[in-house]
Amino acid sequence: MLMIVDAPGLWFRSFYGVPSSVRAPDGTPVNAVRGFVDGLATLIRAYGPSELVCAVDLDWRPQWRVDLLPTYKTHRVADSGEEEAPDELGPQVEVIVEVLAALGVPVVGSAGFEADDVLATLAARASGPVDVVTGDRDLFQLVADARSVRVVYIGRGIGKAEAFDAAAVRERFGVEPGQYADYAVLRGDPSDGLPGVKGVGDKTAARLITEFGSLDGLAAAAAEGAKGVTPRVRTSLAEAAGYLKAAPTVVRTVADVPLPEVDGTLRAEPADPVALEALSARWGIGSPLGRFRAAVEGVPASS
């Protein structure tokens, strides 16, 4: 089984989830590094992948998405124009990438695209079962029982990770995975700068998408005066027409971005033992690296 990880999501959660008092021998903060490595070890123990790949943002806020929806992730933009992030996190991300290289875990990105698009492409390419690890709810759109693609949702933390198949998505949100993007557009998502449609919350959005199948089906029903669309909702849809035309392309992942071929096979021996030992000593991360190695060695060969 292939496990593909939203690496930025995991290192942000690690940074905030592990105390900043966790430091290297020289006093440098390594809370995100330790949390990230321990998080991977926990996931490997829990789900038993035979392959592991980390996806990263080479463009966290692609201009083509901003052109369609100017509010997209606006609240996350720092004065520099880059993504707002704690000063102590950036240097740790560099260490995380070095550690992954020494371990032999591929780190993959694509110019002009987000990690979400990389995850979608890797999932589409896979020939066997896939677990997509993320705290981004929009990626529930990737769930596909026919291709054995699940989302392991870590929005509440690694310790409370939940594996979602299609039935779990239906139970939690009231829509099919393939309808999730339209549902998200309709109800909105402040974390991504999606305003949604005025007066349409989670339950109403789920009902409308389920009843009419999609945003296009809903628009057609509203235009025809269907009973399932109240006058208030019909007015709100009309007022949000421009947003509803642009936002679906923003929310839907791109599943064919340019990516190299990658071999994510988990092996007991690191790709670069010398580099890994140096990183372990420099940053004082021997314990989490030991837990990672132990988790990998515990993966059944047939998984």
Automatic annotation (TrEMBL):
CDD domains: H3TH_53EXO, PIN_53EXO. This is 5'-3' exonuclease. 5'-3' exonuclease acting preferentially on double-stranded DNA. GO terms for biological process: DNA replication, Okazaki fragment processing. InterPro entries: 5-3_exonucl_a-hlix_arch_N (IPR020046), 5-3_exonuclease (IPR002421), 5-3_exonuclease_C_sf (IPR036279), DNA_polI_H3TH (IPR020045), FEN (IPR038969), HhH2 (IPR008918), PIN-like_dom_sf (IPR029060). PANTHER family: 5'-3' EXONUCLEASE FAMILY PROTEIN, FLAP ENDONUCLEASE XNI. Residues 2-268 form the 5'-3' exonuclease domain. GO terms for molecular function: 5'-3' exonuclease activity; 5'-flap endonuclease activity; DNA binding. Keywords: DNA-binding, Exonuclease, Hydrolase, Nuclease. SUPFAM superfamilies: 5' to 3' exonuclease, C-terminal subdomain, PIN domain-like. It comes from Actinorhabdospora filicis. It holds the Pfam family 5_3_exonuc_N. Gene3D superfamilies: 5' to 3' exonuclease, C-terminal subdomain (1.10.150.20), 5'-nuclease (3.40.50.1010). The keyword Cytoplasm does not apply.
